[in-house]
Each structure stands twice: as structure tokens, then as C-alpha cells.
Design brief:
The protein is an alpha+beta fold. It is about 40% helix and about 20% strand. It binds ligand BES and zinc ion.
Amino acid sequence: MTAEKRNTYKAQKRTDYKAPNFTATDIDLTFTLDDTKTIVKNVTRFKRLTSDAKAPLILNGEELKLNYLKVDGINYKFKETKNGVEIPSVPDEFTVELENEINPSANSSLMGLYKSNGTFCTQCEPEGFRRITYSLDRSDVLAKYRVTIIGPEYGCGVLLSNGNLIERGTKKNRPYAIWEDPFPKPSYLFALVAGTFDIVSDTFITMSGRKVDLELYVDRGAYERGLWAMQSIKDSMKWDEDRWGLEFDLDNFKVVAVDFFNFGAMENKGLNVFNSVYVMVDPTCATDTAFYNVQSVIGHEYFHNYTGDRVTLRDWFQLSLKESLTVFRDQEFSSDVANRALTRLHAINVIRGPQFAEDASPMAHPVRPEEVMEMNNFYTVTIYDKGAEIIRMIHTLIGESRFKKALNDYLHKYDGQAVTIEDFLCCFEESAGVDLSQFRRWYTQAGTPHVKASWIYDEENKNLVLKLSQHTNPTRDQQVKEPFYMPIRMSFLDKEGHDVHPAELSSDGYIILNENEQEYRFTLDRDTLPVILRDFSAPVKLDAPYTMEQLQHMLSFCDDAFIKVDCATTMQNRYIHDNLEIAAAQSVLKEPAELIASYKAILDSVDSQSDLILINETLKIQSIANLMETFDKINIDAIKYAHDALETKVAVSLVNEFVELYGKIRASSANYSVADMGRRAINNSALHMIAVAKCAMDKKKEASDIVLNHYNSSKNMTDKLQAMTDAVHLDLECKTEILKSFEKDWSKDALVFDNFFRVQATVPNKSAIDNVKKLLSHPSYDGRNPNRVRALAGALALSNPVALNDISGEGYDLLCKQISALNDINPSVAARILTPLLSFRRLDEKRQGMILNNLNSLMQMPKLSRSIYEKVSTALKE
Ligand code: BES
Ligand code: ZN
């Protein structure tokens, strides 16, 4: 047998969907918890749906030990297969009673029931329930659950499952609890948690006056760190009522924070389980970004209660149905309660960085994929974030009030059902009175559309004539792309910087591009400037022939946050692209004069009244990762050289301005608030630019002093982390002292200490590789803790393109070694950090060869997981 044959898995096709032959109506589970031998008793009522009376009942089950199985109380003939059991000749309605055993301690994949730092917890989405007990583990089988949990012999603080507590007490010296969830749900929304926690309790009175008990379970001793998450739960509940009229539907809502978790968080009905990184914050241990993220992730999972739980998915190809809609909802939540511009700019950065990269990679897939081998590989930026842009475009096209009505009609029509993206679109078409037939291509065609703009002035008719064209490159799965239907938000600026609104432009300010090429006429004065793609109204690459002066003009006068930031970004991109050859030869680059002039104007006018969040985003030098996405073929060394030259030149030219800014803008307290987040953000950016400038000016000692002082004088983690990052990334003298001090203060605090690993893994040069090697044997390194893995190998892979792609090839070797170790421990985490290697064909030949060698040896591995197999084999096929 060849190695290739040994590792073969088959893809499933969306169009092969078949309705289930049976459904489960009631599931009664009893867990007798034990670290290594948990007994699950499962009594499920089944009903035949198919007219085929001979169809056997096939239950999913993985890595389970089956003790017995009875049908209607009688020991029955059944066949154990690799993926479950098959029970032939069953009646139309019947009860299966069975008992199986599992070993939570040995479960390092963190799918199913596992132990996380002493706590029993579950993760079932997408297909983890089959690792707990035998079931119809598919999202279109909805059942009512009754769950009895008997605590482990050594005792246990709380025993939790979905829904309402029916009974609790002690039997034979063991605590037990019985839970019932009144809402039928698919198995992926099942959850169980057992452990000892601090509990933050509160209540929420809903819009109809019902009282909901809220409980947040955190590590013992960490009560205070749960308070912001609790506030965020209440804010989410209120916002969903205010903006969409959606009221919580259970009498209690529970959130549990666990330390070992594959993802960010999970929306199990009434019992959300969170990675502790998205719960546990206080200003001394967490950054402003962490506070902001806790609020948005709490919101996200809470909002799934309707978009995902009440109306769920027919099959996993429909994942975008719940995720895109819920990301759109969490973005709107963050926009309304935190900051709209910041939220939008973050979302746009995800699209223009990782999502464009995915669209250009062998794993490019439509938002509704056609073929899937391992579902875990499809929780992607395409399905989540491009999907959310699609929902946002629908919102743009039909407007807030029709969107709200359509969403409510959809939730009402399909309440308690498992549906498809097509059902959603039809419902929106009918409710809002729109035709989305061409628009549907956003769901079926992979790849990023390129939009090209040009304009001329027609003197005779006093018309500005705008031409737009679109083109989408072929992807592996589709050679020919049909034109997309996209709303392009527009405005016009006159020479003085005033907005002018031509009669031809609709009042909501967008035009439709839905052909390969289109022409639009606007009655305007000469020299009026079209502002195209305001608010990034469609997820495309725009190529518009603005001059540097026009970009400066828009940057000064346009009132759209995205356009402002994009003008600065475009000026940066132009500079990098124009200088790439010089950078490749490592010669001296010219000055980015226009960018510096614009930045000087901005810096000169900053005061405490300014929109600091927006200004800070405008002043940011783009990440190397996002810069890479502006090139088809990637010359990483030249991009890095040009990026650093650009940053240094801006920093040196404006060092006085940054020094003044640094002294002028300070947060009013060490606590989190949106206003202080803005102040700290710009103050920290100033610190960074000062340090960069001083290093370039041969004043490294001064850079070190100011950074060390910043570290020591602040009580806030945002500041400390900025100082530590600058000290380590710029290799300042204070580096050792800061790292030591950070280690002393935080090494016992896993979440905070992850930063110690991440900062050293993201040094933007080869030394990061040595750092990672060294830190792999740090006493606090734990290869079974996904947060740690993501902070070290994950950071190198996903946040350090320079070190990963170092010409020595050591970055690739190191990453692949970690991936093969993780293949057996946790394939889902392993497959995620593999992602950047898939795009090897965009690099030079030498790097391509080195990555190919590594990918080929991964393919040879015995017991290669399905997730890695799918990604690597897809990349090698291209
Ligand atoms: N349903 C997902 C959790 C999930 C992710 C399950 C991957 C199975 C595989 C949850 O709603 C989610 O989307 N979580 C995100 C965070 C969110 C704020 C986008 C996550 O875990 O990354
Ligand atoms: Zn989600």
C-alpha cells in the first residue's frame, strides 16, 4: 500500500443532501462522570420519516465503547461499524436504549466531552456529539433533551446542561442535576459542563417584563474578571430587543469560561461555552482590544440564539446561513455600542488581508461551498466575514426597515426548523420585494472581484462620465465567472472639499454594478471628484486612477471613515509598489513626500476633541500581511524592506510631531472605555513611531528609555503590551528587563502569559524562529493548550510572514514539525495553522520548493488527519 492510498478521505457534495430516514424526538441522557471512564446512558425516541420500511437506523458514533443496545427494551441485533452502529429492521416508532463509555481525560482533540484544566466540558459543533454517544448527529434532526448529570466521585461544584434545572441533590454520596431544554435542537447545540467555579450572577428584565437569571462561570478567584462579560450579556440582550425586537426565550442564560478550547466560543442553547480569553478581562491583565473583543464575542454567541439556534441549518454546507448573519449582527452591535468606524475598519481589514488571501489560495471556496471533506476546515474568513459582507450588501440594497421586517419574517416563518441559504434568500426576496437572482452569485462563485474605475468629463453635456468594469479571476473549482451584482456607494467632492449630490445619484448614494462594464452619467461641474466604494460597500479590489493630489484631497475632506483610511493606505501601497525594485536591490528609497505631508497636516490638527480612533487608523502603516495581498507574486524580502523604509521615513520626518502627540494625548484612567481606548491607541502609536525614529537616528538608548518608562509607569495592559512589543521587536536594551518583569508578574496567569509567547514569536525577522524553538521548552509551554499553541507556532504561522518565510527555510521546517506533532493531539488546531503554506505558488521558486518538500512529507505521515489531508492535498493538486 502506498502512503497516498493509506491517507485517503472522500469529499461530500452539497448537492448529495438527502433528508434523514429517521428523526429523534426525545433524547434522555444520563452521564455518570469520571475522568477516564464516563458512562453515558442514552434513551432516544426515534420516528421513521422515510416510506422505505426496510431502511435501517444508522447512528453516528466515534471512539465510543458500546456496552449494550436495546430496541423497545429488547436486546437487538446490530452491527458496529467504524463510524457507528447500524440497526436493521426497526419499527416506525421505537425507543433505543444504550450505554456507552468515553474517556474525557484522553480526549486531546477537544471535540466531544473532554477535560479542560479540571473542568468537564463539551464541544459538539460540527460533529462532536458522535464522540459522546450514538446519535443521528446531523443538524436537521431536532430533538428535546433531558439530561441527568451525576458528578464524579471526588465531588464537583456545578453540573450544567442546556435549558432549565429540574432537580438537583445528592444520591449515594454523589451530586447530581437534571436539566431539560424545552426547545428542540440539533445535537451540535448540546452542552454539558461540570466543575468548580466562581459565579457572577445577575438578572435581566426582558421587553415583555420577564425576568431572566444570568450566570457567568469563571475560574475560582477570578470573579472580578467576569464583570465586563456579564455587562456585555445584558447589553447584548438589550440591543437585540432594541434593534430587531428579539427577546430572550428561556428563564436562564449561562455562560461558562474554559481554558482549553479550540475556537473562540460556542452558542449551545442557553449554555454558551467560551474560550476564557473572550471572557476574562480587567484593565491590569487585558488590553482595550480584549475588552472590545469580549463584548463582541459575547454578543455574537448570544445573537445565535435566534440566528442559528431557533432557526438552524439543514446541513453544514449552509454554515454561512447562521455565521454570516450572526457576524453581521455582532458587527452592528459593536458599531452601536462601541465604535462604528473602528468596527467597520477592522472588518474591512479582515477582508482585505486574510479573506483576499484565502480567495487567492487553493482552498478558495464559495460562501456556500459545493464540496467538503472535513467541515472543521470551513469555519473560514470566507464563510464568516465575506458572508457578513454579503448580508451587509443586502442590508444596503433594501435598507434598515425592510431588512428588519424581512429578518423577523424569516425567523417567524422558519422558527424551530432547519433550513437553507436558499430559504433565507427567498424569504428576503418576498418580504422586501427584491429580486436577488443575480445577487445569489455571491454565494456560488469563489474569488475576489476586481473593479476598475475611470472617468472623463463630457464638456458638452456637463457630465461626469464614470466607467466601471468588473473581473474575477478563475479559481480551481470554477474557470468562468459571471458578473456580480454589487452596490457601489458614491459621493462627489468639489474643489473646495464640499459634498455635491448630482440629481442622477439616488438619495441613499449607491449605484449598481451588475455587468462586466457599465457607464454612469452625473450632471456636475468640471473637476468634481467621484468618491467610489464608500464604507467598502462591496467586498472587492478597487482600482481607481486617483492622483496623489486627489487622494490627499479626499483624505482631508471626505466624511467617510473607510475612504479616509483607504486614501492613506493607497498612498502607502503606491509607494511600496513604485519602490519595489529599488527595495529588492536594497538601495536607498526616495521620500514618501505626499504621505508625510498629509500625515503632518493630520498631526498638526490633533487635539483632545479629535476622533482619535479614526485618526489613529489613518496614521497606521499597513501590516506586511495586508501589503502582501496587494501583490499577485510575493517578493517577501522586498516588501519587508520597503515597508520598513516607509515606516522609518514617516517616523523620522515626523518625530517632533509624534513626541508632541505622545505628551499631549493620554488616557484619563487605566480603565477601559471607548474614549480612553482611542486615547491609548494614538498614544501608543506615537510611542511606537518615536521608538522607530530614534532607532533609525542612532539614538537607540533614548528609544529604550522611553519604552521602559512607558512600561513601568502604566498600570494598564494595553500600554504594557505596546512597550513590551516595541522593546522586543526593535531589540531595545530594555527588552530583557521588561520580559523578566512580565514573566515574574504573569507566568502563573496563562491567558496573560500567552502574550509573552506571542510577542517573541512575532519579531519581524529570523530571530523569531529561534525564539519559538527556545520557548517550546519553556516550563510553561503546553502543546495541549490551544491558546498556547496559537500564541507560539500559531503566531509564527499566522502573524509573522517575515520569519515564517525566511529564506533559510527554517520557519517552514519548524511549523511543519509542530503540525505533525499536533496531527495526533488536535487536528483542528493543526489544520488552522497550516493555512499560510497552502499559498506557496505565490512565492519564489526556492521557497516554493522548500514548502513543497514539507507538504509532501506531511502527506506521507501515518494516520494523517482528515483536516490536514484535505488542505494539503488540495494545495498539491493545483
Ligand atoms: N459556532 C461557532 C463556534 C465554532 C467555530 C464551532 C468553529 C465549530 C467550529 C461560534 O458561533 C463562532 O462563530 N465563534 C467564533 C467567534 C465569533 C465571534 C466569530 C470563533 O470561535 O472563532
Ligand atoms: Zn458563530
